[in-house]
Design goal:
This protein is of the alpha+beta class. The chain contains six helices and nine strands; from the N terminus they run αββββαααβββααββ. Strands 1, 2, 3, 4, 5, 6, 7, 8 and 9 form a nine-stranded mixed beta sheet that branches.
Length: 242
């Protein structure tokens, strides 16, 4: 990723930079075919931010995400990396909330739940609160892979954390609980090669490129996986490793 990329070159539309909003993304990878596949969906054309582009499920951190009680917490090494260079007050509950947000947004946008689901008889309703009431939330399978802050001047700015999870931990992998919120049109499983042929945001393409060789060599990332942190400073696009 360089400053010459047209997506960066055309990003400064506002004289003052907007404050980034915390957000989280979940990259679910399947290994039950000849090649690993990832879940992507097309954003609706009416969205102000990245319309018609294919993205991973994800969205903004909600205050409620930081209050969710979990049955199994993040791996300590994952939790530690989430705390590194956190904007504002360093918060353990915020680090955990980002992981919760990734799972919640994926469920709301695709109907897929990272965790075990009870049978229909024990499920009061299919809304997120109903899911939480019926089952615990297990964060131990999440691995922190990348972070990126949207460049200044964009219509929307996000401080996004990208988590990776093996699809075998999705309790309803081939049976979504609902059709999705409509934010992502027709979520689909793509091989890495197929995904690179789609209309992708620059950061999504970059994350896929970094993740592909790792997923082709192994099914699970280590908890101490280095995290690529990308952001804009001055007139250049920076890249650090956490």
């Amino acid at each position: 990723m360089t400053q010459r990329d047209p997506e960066l070159a055309g990003s400064r539309h506002f004289p003052q930079a907007q404050k980034p909003r915390d957000s989280a993304t979940l990259i679910v990878v399947r290994h039950d075919d000849n090649a690993p596949r990832v879940l992507l969906g097309k954003r609706h054309g009416g969205h102000a931010f990245m319309p018609n582009m294919f993205v991973f499920p994800g969205g903004r951190l909600d205050p409620g995400d930081m209050r969710v009680k979990v049955t199994s917490d993040l791996h300590p090494l994952v939790h530690e990396k989430l705390l590194q260079r956190m904007r504002g007050h360093t918060s353990v509950s915020k680090a955990r909330g980002l992981a919760v947000a990734a799972i919640r947004e994926t469920y709301e946008e695709t109907g897929l739940f990272l965790g075990s689901l009870p049978d229909d008889a024990k499920l009061a309703n299919e809304e997120w609160d109903g899911i939480l009431a019926a089952t615990g939330l297990d964060l131990s399978h999440l691995r922190y892979f990348a972070r990126a802050i949207t460049p200044p001047g964009r219509t929307r700015r996000f401080d996004s954390r990208f988590f990776v999870a093996n699809a075998r931990h999705v309790g309803n992998l081939d049976n979504p609980r609902h059709p999705g919120s409509g934010e992502l049109l027709t979520p689909h499983w793509f091989s890495f090669a197929e995904a690179q042929e789609l209309e992708l945001p620059m950061i999504t393409r970059d994350v896929l490129k970094r993740l592909q060789p790792l997923m082709e060599a192994q099914q699970d990332l280590p908890a101490d996986q280095p995290v690529c942190f990308q952001y804009y400073r001055g007139k250049s696009w920076r890249e650090d490793m956490l």
